[in-house]
Amino acid sequence: MFVDSHCHLDFPDLAAREDAVLAAMAAKRVGHALCVAVKLEDFPRVLALAERHPNLSASVGVHPDNDGVEEPDVERLLALAEHPKIVAIGETGLDYYWQKDAPEWQRERFRTHIRAARACGKPLIVHTRSAAEDTLRVMREEGAGEAGGVMHCFTESREVAEAALDLGFYISFSGIVTFKSARDLKEVARFVPLDRLLIETDSPYLAPVPHRGKTNEPAWVVHVAEEIARLRNESLDRIEAVTTENFFRLFRHAQAH
Fold first, then answer.
1. Which CATH number goes with the domain that contains 151?
2. What is the mean pLDDT of residues 37-65?
3. DSSP letter at 1?
4. N or C: which end of the chain has fewer CB within 10 A?
């Protein structure tokens, strides 16, 4: 089976079609998906999704873009992460694309998530955009390698990938890797060791070719796997097997069904 290591099934475009989305996953042999939280206010909705379906897991965290929302502290994240369906902390990280003043509150929030992940022994889901240097610096300063985790929806350089790999992190590729314009990212997808490779949709965003421009969904993670297989001159079966094995090794609290 395939695994979608990062999606947002609680977002309105997908939540309104919950049964159809799950059926499409089954039809494409996408046997598991990780539903990723972006705000504490919406966390109950994410957790409820995972509780309804044995082949869904969830995370808890606050996305770096979200300003003016409930701010997490370590104790709150640890309390929510005790639920057996919660397999990761995040998504967290830094995003200076929208927050161009590179605010200190983002870095403090990121540190809070890393400390929580270390304390509970669950891996991090890291988002970085236009902030790679600071992201890696904070990860090193806070000992993020002790918790481990994944650089999700990776779009950075090979050098950034190498630094994340050196910290013990996995690298996850989204539908962006299928875009013709993503030449540099395709090279990174060839470089990342097979045992550190994950695939995701980040749905409802970033639909892969041939569905580009549509509302993305977990069933389409297969197209990401197909492109990585092509780039690496590997069989699709091989990419399916290793990315699924990698997912359950990293997110060890997730239950395969």
1. 3.20.20.140
2. 98
3. -
4. C
